[in-house]
């Protein structure tokens, strides 16, 4: 009964919003790239700035940050080794690493931890997301574009997105206790930052509505996709949902985390592939169909895996 309660009260509301985005995508077929541009260049940087600017830094939070960074690096290494073992091309290797490294710590993760552990859990999740967003926009932009453009261009793309700069500015203003002018506070913190989560949920639903399987995904034979290989999609989803939690638990213990900090760090690291991965793959020419396919399978499977994980971690508040 507790497991069913977790599914209905914690995960189902999030899935309902995603489902509405899915239905809108099926009926109206809006262009996801136009939405991803707003996310990458406006709403997500605002959420990152807010999280860093308002954070009360502590040793435990730095431990949460350590879990986020260590887990991402470990999963990237695992993805690299698996891709080399399977003789993936550079683009396929980059796509696999992208899907298992970027976690849906924002729209899904923040909402999940808030529903499971209250506002305190949600606050820890926001800080985790800030770190994972920085990782996502360093690792993510590079791997999203590495298979289609030269390495130097892929590296330069990292500095074209503003999330890194938003975090640095937020940290500086936080450290020196600088109060924002009211016009900036209301624009960035009160309007733009909260808008990022529902927009990302909507984009995730939209991206999922465009996922197709099978060899005839596209008539453009010059643009092959791993989405045509169900085994590749299941492999990436399995690595993300079944391997990542154990990696996160190990690092959480290593950094001495306990209580809510431990639970949130492990849950956030165990989230399915981030919608940001789809946005980056769409924006920078990566294998967006494969990333979206893994996001679809992983998101659906996470209803069970995350419910079980919350139950094993001690349930909800």
Task: Please provide a brief summary of the model.
This protein is an all-alpha fold.
Provide the CATH architecture.
Answer: Up-down Bundle
From the N-terminal CA to the C-terminal CA, the straight-line distance is 15 Å
Proportion of residues in helical segments: over 70%
The total of beta strands comes to 0
Q: How many H/I helices?
A: 12
CATH T-level topology: Na+/H+ antiporter like fold
Portion in beta strands:
under 5%
Unreliable residue stretches: 216-221
Q: What summary fits the major beta sheet?
A: none
Q: H/E series, N to C?
A: HHHHHHHHHHHH
| Overall pLDDT score | 86
Question: Using only CA atoms, what is the Rg?
Answer: 18 Å
General description of the model:
By secondary structure, this protein is mainly alpha-helical. The chain has a single domain (2-19, 30-209, 244-312), classed as Na+/H+ antiporter like fold. Helix content is 78%, strand content 0%. It has 12 helices and no strands. The protein has helices spanning 2-28, 32-53, 59-85, 90-101, 107-146, 151-158, 163-175, 182-209, 230-254, 259-269, 275-284, 288-312. Helix 8 (182-209) crosses helix 11 (275-284). The radius of gyration is 18 Å and the shape is globular.
């Amino acid at each position: 009964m507790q497991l069913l309660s977790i599914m209905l009260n914690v995960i189902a509301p999030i899935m309902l919003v995603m489902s509405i985005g899915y239905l809108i995508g099926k009926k109206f077929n809006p262009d996801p790239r136009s939405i991803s541009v707003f996310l990458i260049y406006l709403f997500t940087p605002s959420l990152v700035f807010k999280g860093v600017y308002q954070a009360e830094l502590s040793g435990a939070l730095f431990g949460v940050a350590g879990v986020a960074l260590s887990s991402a690096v470990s999963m990237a290494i695992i993805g690299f080794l698996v891709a080399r073992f399977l003789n993936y091309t550079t683009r396929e290797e980059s796509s696999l690493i992208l899907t298992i490294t970027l976690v849906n710590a924002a729209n899904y993760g923040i909402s999940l931890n808030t529903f499971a552990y209250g506002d305190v859990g949600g606050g820890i999740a926001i800080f985790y997301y800030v770190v994972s967003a920085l990782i996502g926009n360093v690792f993510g932009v590079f791997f999203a574009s590495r298979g289609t453009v030269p390495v130097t261009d892929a590296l330069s793309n990292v500095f074209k997105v503003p999330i890194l700069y938003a975090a640095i500015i937020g940290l500086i203003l936080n450290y020196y206790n600088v109060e924002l002018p009211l016009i900036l506070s209301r624009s960035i913190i009160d309007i733009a930052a909260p808008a990022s989560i529902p927009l990302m949920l909507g984009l995730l639903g939209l991206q999922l509505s465009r996922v197709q399987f099978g060899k005839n995904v596209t008539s453009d034979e010059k643009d092959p996709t791993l989405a045509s290989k169900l085994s590749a999609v299941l492999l990436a989803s399995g690595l993300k949902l079944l391997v990542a939690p154990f990696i996160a638990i190990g690092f959480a213990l290593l950094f001495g985390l306990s209580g809510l900090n431990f639970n949130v760090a492990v849950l956030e690291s165990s989230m399915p592939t981030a919608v940001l991965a789809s946005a980056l793959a769409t924006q920078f020419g990566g294998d967006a169909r494969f990333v979206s396919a893994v996001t679809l399978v992983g998101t659906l499977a996470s209803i069970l895996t995350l419910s079980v994980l919350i139950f094993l971690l001690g349930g909800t508040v």
